[in-house]
Amino acid sequence: MLNSQLLVLASTSIYRSELLKRLQLPFETAAPDVDETALPDESARATSLRLAQQKARAVASRYPDALIIGSDQVALLEGNQLGKPLTHDNAVKQLRAMRGKTTCFYTALALLNSKTGNMQAEVAENHVTLRDLSDAEIEGYLLKEQPYHCAGSAKSEGLGIALMSKMTGDDPNALVGLPLILLIGMLRRENVRLF
Predict the structure, then answer these.
(1) Which residues face 73 on adjacent strands?
(2) DSSP 84
(3) Do the bridges between strand 102-113 and strand 66-77 make them parallel or antiparallel, or are there none, so unpaired?
């Protein structure tokens, strides 16, 4: 690692933290405390990008000489944004709406150099088609995995993969919550090397 700046993940997500650990770089985590509500008439892509940047900026004052990673994911189904369901009933509604259809997941990534103010930001797209699930299958899945803090109510890194009939996109890690392929490119532009 040529750049000696601290690496900070502006997230309390255990999934994002686990993904970042794969790069074998030391890092800290910090809660960004950002309102994740979409703005009126804001596209799903724009929402994810704005929130990823806001999350990185939200912790910058605590880390004045760091590389800060912000990430956010928004799912889009037939023009409607799907956020984290938070409850069982909301997750049932989401999965019923998604069954047999393709949902686009926009996972934005921002890397802020808090020393220089340089912000890099990009969005990875993944398209997920769910099987035509029965109500009983949806209920069974939710009771086993309880994915209430995942946009779209399905965790591809877990049992949620059984709900999916097809997945295409820029980076399979993005679907879990952190586009590592994009991140590696951004880190390289900040003179951070993995090898």
Answers:
(1) 107
(2) -
(3) antiparallel
Question: How much is the pLDDT for 156?
Answer: 87
Rg for the chain (alpha carbons), in Å? 17
Q: Count the neighbouring beta carbons within 10 Å of the beta carbon of residue 22.
A: 10
Which helix (H) or strand (E) is 114 found in, with range? none
Which residues, other chains included, contact 3 with Cβ-Cβ below 8 Å and sequence gap of 6+?
67, 190, 191, 192
Number of Cβ within a 10 Å radius of residue 66: 22
pTM of the model: 0.92
| Rounded Cα gap, residues 58 and 30, in angstroms | 9
Strand extents, DSSP E, 64-139: 66-77, 80-82, 102-113, 119-130
Q: Read off the tokens for 159.
A: 């049992």
Joined together, the tokens standing for residue 99 give 């069954």
d(CA 98, CA 76): 10
Q: Which residue ranges in the chain fall short of pLDDT 70? A: 1-2
Q: Which of 4, 122, 3 is nearest to 70 (CA)?
A: 122
Q: For each of the domains in the chain, give its residue range(s) and CATH number, in order of start.
A: 6-189 (3.90.950.10)
**Which amino acids are annotated catalytic?**
72
pLDDT tens readout for residues 129-166: 999 999 999 999 999 999 998 888 988 888 999 999 99
